[in-house]
Write a structure and sequence with these properties.
By secondary structure, the protein is of the alpha+beta class. It has 14 helices and 15 strands. The chain folds into 2 domains: 104 residues, Roll (CBS-domain); 197 residues, Ribosomal Protein S5, domain 2 (2-Layer Sandwich).
Length: 422
């Protein structure tokens, strides 16, 4: 919109004002002083009344301009502008701090706000596995008739924030590592040495064509046995997915996370971690060469896989005591896989927990340390907690998290000073 056709000097004639009003088609003209400050407003109705009262077309417009008029600043919320236009106001000038005209709104002209800069945020929950661990390894389910695990996500998360830069620089800050990776572009960021191997593997898969800043932190310690690397990967992917027009679905997100960690980074492991954190909630997962299924369906069970089916049925029917007993079975099975999974110290913790209220439990993750998960009846829960804390162990409360990966965008202008980008 050309603002000049809405402005006229204070000494201009009523004839000139009418000509200007005729050209802007809004029935209003704003009167300005020598500095461009808007000092008043006149409508075609104001001029008509002046002429009917004996005025002349040659007299100055400031003779009939109204100095008490409605105006707003450019940052006035759209809601307020709409409400004022409901009060029979035809045109609202937008004035800056010097009361110069910088915009105009009317019932016919209230532009939708242009797209501004946004940043993406995401969080992904950790998983705890109840049974079937190991059957999600490709070499297991490719040589057997399939694999199956049962797991859930809980209220501990990895968090990621992604800001797009206006240059090619890459900056990644990790609160968990206490380190920062910087590169002039993606190539130099991928070549940088340090402890960002997982993120660099993700960037190899993603190949973003823009510079960015990525901020990472988690609610849980590293090497906790909670599938943490997959959780970090999911949070990062969730952020990048927000900037895609053709967004990846949940299966694709899990597959990309698996590709980065297993193929690019070379870390051995199964499939359940990536699917658990992306899908969230309690899941019974089946693994076959042709597809991975995140709900209980057809598969011929092996011993470990069959236990996952038993746990699924116990949970669905609310048989929590039997579920706790199945956890105990799963732990005993798992200990037989390798002598590195447990130790005399871990075996003592487990045995004493069962003597102090736990029906069953298991060490989360691949073994060797991290978190123990125990099930105890509500009336023996306090006894178990008191025993564990007296033994120098930390109790970590959690709730089950029904949601998996969550990602969203936030407008920069509402939350940050633009000078923060460097």
């Amino acid at each position: 919109m050309q603002l000049e056709i809405f402005l006229i000097g204070a000494s201009a004639s009523l004839r000139e004002a009418l000509q200007r009003i005729e050209s802007n088609h809004h029935g209003t003209i704003f009167v300005t002083d020598a500095n461009g400050t808007v000092s008043g407003v006149a409508t075609d109705g104001d001029i008509r009344r002046r002429l009917l009262n004996g005025g002349s077309l040659d007299e100055a417009i400031n003779q009939c301009a109204n100095a008490d008029f409605v105006w707003e600043n450019p940052n006035t919320p759209r809601e307020l502008l709409l409400k004022k236009l409901d009060h029979r106001i035809r045109v609202i000038p937008l004035l800056d701090s010097a009361r110069r005209l910088v915009g105009l709104v009317s019932r016919d002209h209230l532009p939708i706000q242009a797209e501004g800069a946004v940043y993406a945020r995401a969080r992904a929950p950790v998983r705890i596995s109840f049974g079937g661990g190991g059957s999600d390894l490709t070499h297991y389910f490719s040589s057997n008739e399939g694999g199956a695990v049962i797991n859930t996500t809980i209220s501990l998360y990895s968090h990621a924030t992604l800001r797009i830069r206006n240059d090619e620089r890459v900056i990644i800050r990790s609160l968990d590592l206490g380190e920062t990776l910087q590169g002039d572009d993606l190539f130099s960021a991928l070549a940088a040495m340090g402890r960002f191997g997982l993120i660099q593997a993700l960037l190899r898969a993603l190949r973003p064509d823009f510079g960015f800043e990525l901020f990472l932190h988690s609610d849980f310690p590293m090497n906790s046995g909670l599938g943490g690397s997959a959780v970090v990967s999911a949070a990062v992917l969730g952020c990048f997915n927000q900037f895609r027009r053709d967004q990846w679905d949940l299966h694709e997100l899990a597959e990309i996370a698996y590709q980065a960690e297993r193929h690019y980074l070379g870390v051995a492991g199964g499939w359940q971690d990536q699917y658990a954190t992306v899908f969230g909630g309690f899941n019974f997962m089946e693994f076959r060469m042709d597809q991975n299924i995140v709900h209980p369906l057809r598969i011929h069970p092996e011993t470990n896989v069959r236990l996952s089916y038993e746990m699924r049925n116990d949970l669905l029917r609310g048989r929590l005591r039997q579920f706790g007993q199945s956890l105990d079975k799963a732990w005993r099975f798992k200990r037989h896989f390798s002598d590195k999974i447990s130790s005399s110290h871990l075996d003592q913790i487990y045995a004493e927990a069962k003597s102090n209220g736990a029906i069953g439990g298991k060490l989360l993750g691949a073994g060797g340390g991290g978190f123990f998960l125990f099930y105890a009846p509500p009336y023996r829960k306090h006894q178990l907690i008191e025993h564990l804390e007296a033994s120098g162990l930390k109790n970590r409360p959690f709730r089950f998290e029904p949601q998996g990966l969550q990602a969203w965008t936030v407008r920069e202008c509402r939350n940050h000073d633009e000078s923060d980008v460097s």
